[in-house]
Amino acid sequence: MATEQEPPPSGRVSRRKLLGLGAAGAAVLGAGAVAARPLMNEPPPGAVAPANEPPGVGAAASAANEPQGAHAAPYPFYGEHQAGIVTPAQDRLHFVAFDVTTGERAELVELLQEWTAAAARLTQGREAGSFGAVGGAPEAAPDDTGEALGLPASGLTLTVGFGTSLFDGRFGLSGKRPAAMSDLPKFPGEQLIPEISGGDLCVQACAHDPQVAVHAIRNLARIGFGKVSVRWSQLGFGRTSSTSRAQATPRNLMGFKDGTNNLKLEDADLLREQLWAGAGDGSPWMTGGSYLVTRKIRMTIETWDRTSLAEQEQIFGRDKGVGAPLGRKAEFDPLDFAAKGPDGEPYIRADAHVRLAHPTSHGNAHLLRRGYNFVDGSDGLGRLDAGLFFIAYQRDPRRQFVPVQMSLARKDPLNEYIKHVSSGLFACPPGVRDAGDYWGRTLFEG
User: Fewer CB within a 10 Å sphere, N or C end of the chain?
Assistant: First the structure.
């Protein structure tokens, strides 16, 4: 990201800048200190997408055909929907959940405005603030932490969500909690750790370069100092689903192709039906948004690795090599649950993962998955602390994620090798339309 030295805009001095300068820097305040809000009127060049065209479609869609390297072009920040949902899935993730520490609604709104301004810049390969990492007063803390200097945008997207706890009454939002955000039930077998679950706010940073993703989250956390604190975060590598037909299907840490039948950005009719919240859903402020469920799923890798290939394939219901449904030849061959083998038994048994999760088993419920592999070191007993950070977007978790996961939790033989240790439910509002808009405006001003 190239260093910028822009002339300071007129306007008030931000609290963050005052804290950074301190008494020794008071003399340079006359040169002007950068507040984040004026940057709302400074859109990055070429960032505006047509309001009816989701990010990842049109001009940005060409990136889906590019190698998943560090030189991907920027995705549009402005649009009807937030980027990072149907955008062709990037290879790296830094996901963070925040607790809001301020009790003032006005301060929370101001933070969302500052975050939006910074995100508009960061996603276009620019620094988080006008003075950047080295262009400001020597006595002041920089406007950017600097570890992404010289790096391109790398396909960075930033997606924000509001957790169920944000609607607890602190900010006058209890009457605006969507019905679709009913608390998730307790699923059989889950072993959730409260400290790495939930959160008032979340930010999903996806990019082709891990340093770019980490840099973005680090700078949003820095901007939020005194108003939010990090509750938990998760790094991910190796996307475990494709969100465009231009992408190859990736593999999870069990070695199987993952997300073959995922919703794709090309499925316009299904996206309207299954992904985007509608005006008639009961929460007008969420129109054009989507609901996000996260689950950290720990895999007992060592036990899985000692399981026979035949058993692994029976558990999933797919061939491990090409990803074809059992009894078929190619990955995208239709699933035929009635097909039987030479022994007269179904190729895909009744409790196979693909059968239990299939839309035909749940009233045509689809999910748009954007999960990632993770390895968080070892657990001290010589076992990898590894697995899948599951991310799924949908129109209504009550009708989509909940029935699918309940079926899997009760019947899936894969449960012998996995356990759910973290969970989150977030309402991701519609996209930022232009430079005068901000994340969550429809909630706070609607």
Answer: C
